[in-house]
């Protein structure tokens, strides 16, 4: 009896110790993974980007083709990332894959660009859309105060940061809930459009493929707008170490979510054109609201709320995924070590999440968001193309490396070539923003050689830096992982 009691106490002690060990838990199953991708992809883009796609493609038919091709291209990229995510089991997404295939410098530059301007710009844009859709209905038909929109945007960002600092489970449950809200919003737009189409309302599709106003230099801008709306298919790869059975879950979640999003996006755009002429769509700053005022007069006031919640979901997905890239970069020695630590009770990468907060708030207050989106897109797609090129090089150099999921070679090559083509064409169509993007990214080269390749900071600076890191660690109650999760 005594022996049994002793064994039971030892077992309870071991279980307790396992629960108290500081490390990232595998808590993301298939449904949260699908919700994570759909919830991050479907943000403000589908409610705003149709205007940019139509403006740069020149006709209704070509804009629908661009939407469908952007979906196919995103699916190709997502399948490449499914192979990368099952071949390299670390979290970190782009950063990890560049590190494993092309080396530390490209990986560091990706990390540098992500936190210098890509992530703050994208998060600021989405949070501003959230603030606009929350505030503007209260001031119609007058213009809403800019300061109030920014204040509400900051409150939205603060809520998302708080959720992601509090717990991984809460963040994933929030994402699942907001994803169902997004799907409801899209269905609410699609159903009236399909009914109107069935009644023969097809006049806006007549002569849909006029190419008179189409110019080659505007094609990449049409694709950038479409691809921005599809952006987010790679975020699940940022949290690989927290996915349950990643070899099965990652490919399955990616395929299910991207097929769903592509079908929904094309149908939503068809619905828009049943109720609005191309000229009216180009004049609208909030396409979904204009559509609702015509097709859903009794429920028109609901659409801004649903769009705001959709933006909040995209913001939550970004804040859930991106800090994991910083977390892994710090773990590899490419960022200060404090950012590779997690909260001892919450098991969340608290310092990495908190770093994004002031960067996004500063960019929100500054307000120069829309130009940032253009050159953020260039940097993002350039590094994605580099990552898939690295995958092809790694395949050639290490053919025996375990690859639980292997994408067909033709898909990987097609995606890589198209990405480089779009990026190259943007050098011609928008050299100013592209040049600024290149310049900002390349500022990371001297930083890499001074702080990573050869640590050249003066001894006094190092002591101050180490002291500050130690005090931050105590204040935030964070520690290094005690269990290897990859």
TrEMBL record:
<feature type="transmembrane region" description="Helical">
    <location>
        <begin position="147"/>
        <end position="166"/>
    </location>
</feature>
<keyword id="KW-0812">Transmembrane</keyword>
<keyword id="KW-1133">Transmembrane helix</keyword>
<feature type="transmembrane region" description="Helical">
    <location>
        <begin position="218"/>
        <end position="238"/>
    </location>
</feature>
<feature type="transmembrane region" description="Helical">
    <location>
        <begin position="348"/>
        <end position="366"/>
    </location>
</feature>
<dbReference type="InterPro" id="IPR002293">
    <property type="entry name" value="AA/rel_permease1"/>
</dbReference>
<feature type="transmembrane region" description="Helical">
    <location>
        <begin position="405"/>
        <end position="428"/>
    </location>
</feature>
<feature type="transmembrane region" description="Helical">
    <location>
        <begin position="250"/>
        <end position="275"/>
    </location>
</feature>
<feature type="transmembrane region" description="Helical">
    <location>
        <begin position="372"/>
        <end position="393"/>
    </location>
</feature>
<dbReference type="GO" id="GO:0015179">
    <property type="term" value="F:L-amino acid transmembrane transporter activity"/>
</dbReference>
<feature type="transmembrane region" description="Helical">
    <location>
        <begin position="178"/>
        <end position="198"/>
    </location>
</feature>
<feature type="transmembrane region" description="Helical">
    <location>
        <begin position="116"/>
        <end position="135"/>
    </location>
</feature>
<dbReference type="GO" id="GO:0016020">
    <property type="term" value="C:membrane"/>
</dbReference>
<feature type="transmembrane region" description="Helical">
    <location>
        <begin position="60"/>
        <end position="82"/>
    </location>
</feature>
<keyword id="KW-0472">Membrane</keyword>
<dbReference type="InterPro" id="IPR050598">
    <property type="entry name" value="AminoAcid_Transporter"/>
</dbReference>
<feature type="transmembrane region" description="Helical">
    <location>
        <begin position="434"/>
        <end position="455"/>
    </location>
</feature>
<feature type="transmembrane region" description="Helical">
    <location>
        <begin position="295"/>
        <end position="315"/>
    </location>
</feature>
<feature type="transmembrane region" description="Helical">
    <location>
        <begin position="28"/>
        <end position="48"/>
    </location>
</feature>
<protein>
    <recommendedName>
        <fullName>Cystine/glutamate transporter</fullName>
    </recommendedName>
</protein>
<dbReference type="Pfam" id="PF13520">
    <property type="entry name" value="AA_permease_2"/>
</dbReference>
């Amino acid at each position: 009896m005594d022996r049994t009691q002793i064994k039971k106490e030892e077992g309870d002690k071991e279980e307790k110790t396992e629960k108290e060990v500081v490390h990232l838990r595998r808590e993301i199953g298939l449904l949260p993974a699908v919700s994570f991708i759909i919830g991050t992809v479907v943000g403000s883009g589908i409610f705003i980007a149709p205007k940019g796609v139509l403006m740069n493609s020149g006709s209704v038919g070509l804009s629908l083709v661009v939407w469908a091709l952007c979906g196919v291209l995103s699916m190709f990229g997502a399948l490449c990332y499914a192979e990368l995510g099952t071949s390299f089991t670390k979290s970190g997404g782009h950063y990890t894959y560049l590190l494993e295939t092309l080396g530390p410098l490209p990986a560091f530059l990706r990390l540098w660009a992500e936190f210098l301007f890509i992530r703050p710009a994208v998060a600021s844009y989405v949070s501003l859309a959230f603030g606009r859709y929350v505030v503007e209905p209260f001031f119609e038909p007058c213009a809403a105060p800019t300061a109030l929109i920014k204040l509400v945007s900051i409150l939205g960002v603060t809520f998302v940061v708080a959720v992601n600092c509090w717990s991984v489970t809460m963040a994933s449950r929030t994402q699942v809930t907001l994803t169902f809200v997004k799907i409801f919003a899209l269905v609410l737009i699609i159903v009236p459009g399909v009914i109107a189409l069935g009644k023969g309302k097809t006049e806006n599709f007549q002569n849909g493929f006029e190419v008179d106003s189409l110019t080659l230099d505007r094609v990449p801008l049409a694709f950038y707008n479409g691809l921005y709306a599809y952006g987010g298919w790679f975020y699940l790869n940022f949290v690989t170490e927290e996915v349950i059975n990643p070899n099965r879950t990652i490919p399955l979640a990616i395929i299910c979510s991207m097929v769903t999003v592509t079908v929904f996006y094309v149908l939503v755009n068809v619905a828009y054109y049943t109720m609005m002429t191309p000229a009216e769509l180009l004049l609208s700053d909030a396409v979904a609201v204009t559509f609702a005022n015509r097709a859903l007069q009794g429920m028109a006031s609901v659409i801004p709320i649903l769009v705001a919640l959709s933006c909040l979901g995209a913001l939550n997905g970004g804040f859930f995924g991106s800090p994991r890239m910083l977390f892994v970069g710090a773990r590899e020695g490419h960022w200060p070590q404090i950012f590779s630590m997690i909260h001892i009770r919450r098991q969340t990468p608290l310092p990495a999440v908190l770093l994004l907060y002031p960067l996004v708030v500063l960019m929100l207050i500054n307000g120069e968001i829309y130009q940032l989106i253009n050159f953020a897109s260039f940097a993002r797609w350039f590094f994605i193309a580099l990552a898939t090129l690295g995958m092809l090089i790694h395949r050639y150099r290490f053919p025996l490396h375990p690859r639980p999921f292997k994408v067909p070679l033709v898909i990987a090559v097609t995606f890589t070539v198209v990405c480089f083509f779009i990026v190259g064409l943007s050098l011609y169509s928008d050299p100013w923003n592209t040049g600024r993007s290149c310049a900002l990214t390349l500022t990371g080269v001297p930083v890499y050689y001074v702080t990573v390749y050869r640590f050249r900071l003066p001894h006094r600076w190092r002591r101050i830096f180490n002291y500050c890191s130690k005090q931050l660690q105590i204040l935030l109650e964070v520690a290094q992982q005690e269990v290897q999760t990859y």
